[in-house]
Amino acid sequence: MISSSLRARRVPDRLGAPLNEPLFERLALIGIGLIGSSLARVARSKGLARTIVAADASGEVRAKTAELAIADKVAETAAAAVAGADLVILCAPVGAMGTIAQEIGPYLAPGAILSDVGSVKASIISAVAPHLPAGVHFVPAHPVAGTEYSGPEAGFATLFLNRWCILTPPDGADPKAVERLSAFWRAAGANVEIMQPAHHDLVLAITSHVPHLIAYNIVGTAADLEEVTRSEVIKFSAGGFRDFTRIAASDPIMWRDIFLNNKEAVLEMLGRFTEDLTALQRMIRRGDGQGLSDLFTRTRAIRRGIIEQGQETAAPDFGRRAGER
Amino acid sequence: MISSSLRARRVPDRLGAPLNEPLFERLALIGIGLIGSSLARVARSKGLARTIVAADASGEVRAKTAELAIADKVAETAAAAVAGADLVILCAPVGAMGTIAQEIGPYLAPGAILSDVGSVKASIISAVAPHLPAGVHFVPAHPVAGTEYSGPEAGFATLFLNRWCILTPPDGADPKAVERLSAFWRAAGANVEIMQPAHHDLVLAITSHVPHLIAYNIVGTAADLEEVTRSEVIKFSAGGFRDFTRIAASDPIMWRDIFLNNKEAVLEMLGRFTEDLTALQRMIRRGDGQGLSDLFTRTRAIRRGIIEQGQETAAPDFGRRAGER
Fold first, then answer.
1. A66 to each of A63, A73, A154, B295, B300, how far by Cα in Å?
2. Comparing C-alpha atoms, which of B108, B166, B172 is closest to residue B140?
3. Distance between A127 CA and the closest CA of chain B, angstroms
4. Contact A233, A262 (CB under 8 A)
């Protein structure tokens, strides 16, 4: 049952023309992986900031960023990058946000907006907020977008196109700062949603964190079997298994940090999953065909909704073999 | 660690020219869904049989098959379809195979090969073999290929291209019959592997059946939550959840039958999965970051192997948004 507010709608498939005037003078991106480098690319192609400054803790990543020429400047340190910036976005793993905030806090310009792209919100807020000087607007954000690839080469300008970006401004946040950041994300192609941090963490636990956990888990289970060889798992993966390997190839440090920092919501949602799986296991053991086909019929509606909302392709098999038809 | 016998190899991306001489005089396909209709299409485009006869229990499907004109004849009954056929392939849900075998047994031509495409092998052999007259060669098969769509319109000629087809001939099967069926599948684009039925059922439990089960399960869990709305699940599904909805949109009756007929192997593999998931849950509860990142690093190798073997695309995000880059 898809609610009427979720009727299929036209979704843009192109970023559109650059803005006439940049939204920010100086955008500092701290952390140049898949998300940071995609932000640099879309900020440039859409003209979202007059100057784009990139920083990364890794010298190798800084060198690659300079080589790709996706930012106007590559700073040696995060502190140097944020000086004079009116928008700073932390694009590092969740566990690194507090340390970065501590490092850059003294260098943030009065009136600047500080944001992030972390997949967990409550723990980032606790880790970051104490390090911020008065007069800096902290507006946490999470673009729900990504691929299984990591690093500055993996980014692309349309990563956020028609994806949702969730903002979790603290109580009393300046509405103007929230609106400026919303405008930035909308110009990057995203839809913006405002949410409480705790609710964000619960929603993402079921739509992202637990799916990753069970994908990592089944790939681990398959790898450890003695009765079935690695070669057999690979050959016959088209039976369904290979779909799980995509998200189980995601960045290990990023995902370690997510689970450590959204422990409560993940364990809660995992508990529901396991409870339901136990019921399903019992249906199989008892031969309850009606129960099985009832569930298997019910689950089709959600995919239809996802396709209708432009969050998924309707092409068979994700369109993986579309070129051959 | 991918073994050297699994090094990346060139994989064909086209079916190639039709055969000079058909491999069979009359091919009877019983059940015209995704697999049956794909077999009809590839049999015609590659010239695998002089005449293709289709049958289906549903009058609606028979009418659609006639309208699509993918077979030379659409028979009213399975018995009529198999009369005079030198290759009969049952393409029905696993639970229907025994009944069909009973119905067609008396009409099978001496020397004919009877095969199937069921995703479970041991239970089909038990259900089908007793109904076959002497002189009919029973060579069970399972092409590990499919999409989340069902029905005669969903099929296409390249469905089996570079996928594996597993044959599970009983002890004492005629090697010539096994070879003729292998040649048929190779000409349809597939790679052929020979296996014991019980081993097939174990391998597919982990590479296909348990993945479908946990995909159905998490989609069900998400649908039933009270704290997170259906609309939120759909909007934020790009965080990973949507990958699971594809296989959870597969045919409910087909999958009900698979779980009821591969109970033992599915419950065994599900037990391993749950055991591993419990260990992972404990790592999260205890904050064992090293344990988490170790597992998350290990799982990347399997995906690399699957891509190198041509069973998966290397395009980010399954190539879903490739058109925009």
1. 5, 8, 15, 32, 28
2. B166
3. 17
4. no
A211, A241, A296 ranked by CB distance to B218: nearest: A211
Measured between alpha carbons, how far is residue A34 from residues A69, A120, A147, B25, B246 in Å? 15, 17, 8, 56, 25
Considering only the beta carbons, identify the residue of B5, B211, B231 that sits closest to A3: B231
CA distance B200 to chain A (A): 10
Selected residue of B120, B207, B226 to mutate for chain A interface (largest A Cβ count, 10 A): B207
Lowest-pLDDT range of A2-11, A26-35, A177-186, A192-201: A2-11
Spatial distance between the Cα atoms of A244 and B240, rounded to a whole number of angstroms: 10
Q: Render pLDDT for B128-168 as a digit per residue (tens, 0 to 9).
A: 999 999 999 999 999 999 999 999 999 999 999 999 999 99
User: Residue A182 phi/psi, 5° resolution?
Assistant: -60, -45
Q: At what angle do helices A210-224 and B210-224 cross, to 10 degrees?
A: 160
Assess contact for A92 and A100: CB atoms under 8 A: yes
- All structural domains of chain B: 4-196 (3.40.50.720), 199-313 (1.10.3660.10)
| Rg from Cα positions in chain A | 21
Report pLDDT digits (tens) over B248-306.
999 999 999 999 999 999 999 999 999 999 999 999 999 999 999 999 999 999 999 99
In angstroms, the separation between the Cα of residue A314 and the nearest Cα of chain B is: 9
